[in-house]
Amino acid sequence: MFTSDPMTGAAAKKMHDLMLAIEEALPRRLNYHHLGRDEIQRFIAKHWQQVEENPNPTTWTNAFLAAKREDWRRFVLGWKVHEVGPLIPGSPTPIFVHYWHPSADSLRPAFKHTWENLAPPEAQRVILDYWTKGDLPACVELPQLYRADEPPAKTCLDGYELCFDKCRVFDFPDPQWLNIAIVHELAHVYLFATHDPTHWMEPPERHDEKQRWHDEMERLVKEVLESWPVDMAMHCALEVHVKREILTKVEAPRVLDRKA
Predict the structure, then answer these.
(1) Residue 33: what pLDDT?
(2) Each residue of 132-191: pLDDT tens digit?
(3) How many CB atoms lie within 10 A of CB 192?
(4) In what order do the strands lie in the sheet with 139-141?
(5) DSSP for 107-140?
(6) 221, 238 contact by CB (below 8 A)
(7) When comparing pLDDT for 92 and 165, which is higher?
(8) Strands 139-141, 161-164: pairing kind
(9) In Å, how far from its chain's centre is CA 99?
(10) Terminal Cα distance for the chain, rounded
(11) Which whole number is the average pLDDT over 232-237?
């Protein structure tokens, strides 16, 4: 029960200011799904009585992050009924696919092959240790990545979630590129697990600085992969393909706009 109406007068301003403070303080690198001001506002409204007693932004930012992590844990574990894993046989780590797709069954042998043949034993140990001791269940997601400038695979939630675009990774011109895409994301996880400062830093605000930060992360991934038994020529071919694909998707609407 609200002690005052959170949508009017001084209460509305308090809610708005706290909402902006939480939004500003959230770690942008986590890439939380569907995170918007409306969700923050609902969270504040739910705890409005406690907010009025203690409106400290740091307290509520930490509380919101804890709630999001718990929501994510429940969401992922709730999808285990649809799992096609475990993706790493014999491992106690709860890594599984939670968005099923007709081609999802082919991900399991690809992931197993990549894990056993392209990730060295020491890297496997580091990654499994990180996943096992973390406070989130590790998982693979098969969403459709909607933004035209997004790659077909990415690592989210500090390395606990690997996302593969279900509409693209199973249709690569070379089927072996799926293995390369998997090991590329595993290298990101490895860098999170070994506390690489570039992976753990907050993304810069400015576009040019953010691009340099992203390029540095990718450089570090390549550095790791060069020390693993990975065909870097194949990795380069996949990288060129992805860049061309993104360029086509981004430029095509611009060309149509110019013609219109």
Answers:
(1) 44
(2) 888 788 888 888 765 667 889 999 889 998 989 888 999 999 999 999 999 999 999 999
(3) 20
(4) 139-141, 161-164, 153-156
(5) HHHHHHHHHHHTS-HHHHHHHHHHHHHSSS--EE
(6) no
(7) 165
(8) parallel
(9) 14
(10) 54
(11) 98
What is the pLDDT averaged over residues 184-213?
92
The token duo for 79 is: 């999808």
Report how far residue 241's alpha carbon sits from residue 238's, in angstroms, rounded to the nearest whole number.
Answer: 5
Which residues neighbour 97 within 8 Å (Cβ) at sequence distance 6 or greater?
Answer: 82, 83, 84, 85, 87, 104, 107, 108, 139, 140, 141, 142
Global pTM reads 0.77
Using an 8 Å Cβ cutoff, are 84 and 142 in contact?
no
Q: What are phi and psi of 156, to 5 degrees?
A: -125, 175
pLDDT band at 129 (very low <50, low <70, confident <90, very high): very high
pLDDT at residue number 7: 54
Q: Return the structure tokens found at 110.
A: 């690809």
Q: Where are the domains of the chain?
A: 9-71, 83-251
Pick the residue with more confidence: 250 or 90? 90
Comparing C-alpha atoms, which of 227, 243, 142 is closest to residue 190? 227
What are the distances in angstroms from CA 127 to CA 118, 132, 171, 179, 242?
Answer: 13, 8, 28, 17, 26
Distance CA 193, CA 189 (A): 6
Q: Name the one residue in this structure whose structure tokens are 């042998």.
A: 109
Q: H helices within the chain, ranges in order?
A: 9-25, 37-46, 48-53, 57-78, 107-117, 121-133, 177-193, 197-200, 207-226, 232-259
The whole-number average pLDDT for the span 212-241 is: 97
